[in-house]
Known about the structure:
The protein is α/β, with parallel strands linked by helices. The protein has helices at residues 14-19, 52-61, 73-82, 92-97, 110-122, 137-150, 164-174, 200-216, 317-331, 339-357, 365-372, and strands at residues 43-46, 65-69, 87-89, 103-106, 126-130, 154-157, 181-191, 222-228, 238-244, 250-256, 258-270, 274-278, 286-296, 299-310, 363-364. Helix 8 crosses helix 10 and helix 10 (339-357) packs across helix 11.
Amino acid sequence: xxxxxxxxxxxxxxSAAVAGRVGVNPAGSEVADxxxxxxxxxxxxxGCGYWGKNLVRNFAQLRALRVIxxxxxxxxxxxxxxxxxxxxxxxxxxxxxxxxxxxVVLATPAVMHYAQVKxxxxxxxxxFVEKPLALRHTEGRELVELAEARGVVLMVGHILEYxxxxxxxxxIIQRGELGRIWYVYSNRLNLGKVRQEENxxxxxxxxxxxxxxxxxxxxxxxxNAWGGSYLQSGIADVTVNNLLFPDGVRAHIFVSWLxxxxxxxxxxxxxxxxxxxxxxxxxxxxxxxxxxxxWRAGLPVPRQTSETTLFFxxxxxxxxxxxxxxxxxxxxxxxxxxxxxxxxxxxVLEASQISLERGGASVRLDxxxxxxx
Length: 373
Ligand SMILES: NC(=O)c1ccc[n+]([C@@H]2O[C@H](COP(=O)([O-])OP(=O)(O)OC[C@H]3O[C@@H](n4cnc5c(N)ncnc54)[C@H](O)[C@@H]3O)[C@@H](O)[C@H]2O)c1
């Protein structure tokens, strides 16, 4: 049996998942106690491109991987060399008709998600699909309802929700440490991985939307977005989104693949304290600032006191996400990023896309709901 070793460098998000290394683990410590694949863990990973190979690595480490499927022979061959014990196929139809495959993990281009998720559910398979769930809210809703009717798990790869820093932040917010949330912003900027099939909004912003909705604890009522297409006509390289939540909470999301350096920063302004999650920082990724404005004699005076760095266990979010999928299948539970939570993200993306096309005009989320009826 092939043994694997994972080295996660610093950040535990996308970059860290990519930084994972596969090789022979002489000590076998990482995986020795995970045992052999269980009969219930017959997972097929479909799509082993840029991102899918990270899913392959994780499900292999979890001893759940049965089949790797990709229509690209070169990618398939590369994976076959790394995982000689795992079956490979270029036939998605073959995966669908194999009744011994209990679950599929889809890391194919977004445009295929709707049709592939639908077919998988119709074949009674549990599904973990990379973000976005689909390209339209109506399609996403159909998938969620189908999964519920069939009683299968439907999970969407909103990986950031599995980041230990985000989980800790959520706990801090729920305990009221920051007070009432006033404002949130998220920057996800980098140079590269320019996509031709989707714009930056659909490529990067699903992560920010899912985390912000989760931290605020609701979905926006209105959004707007503007963007700039510089490299390819009609495909935005940079977008800025504004989100308005109930109770006046506001957020903005700034995403770009045309930026001189990498930045992944989430800032939360509460009426008591402020928090910063800087996922590109080497150390001190999560900080709480006991800062704010106090009114003295009718004048606003900045209050600058302590800054606290919070520590959390470094774990690869993708690993936690994959474990969640398997646990939810075994225990018949809803994942943290289930189909319903993904629908919320999809609604925001669709409304933002409409706003982009309308030159930044505000779009109410109930417009999307109406479209779904
Ligand atoms: N969670 C994250 O942080 C993250 C990061 C990057 C990408 N993604 C998501 O992962 C998905 C894939 O993105 P990518 O960058 O890996 O794309 P990619 O183009 O590198 O890989 C897609 C793979 O799917 C294969 N494929 C296409 N059609 C197929 C079919 N019918 N049957 C089997 N295989 C097929 C392709 O050959 C390719 O290997 C997208 O949904 C993307 O949004 C998520």
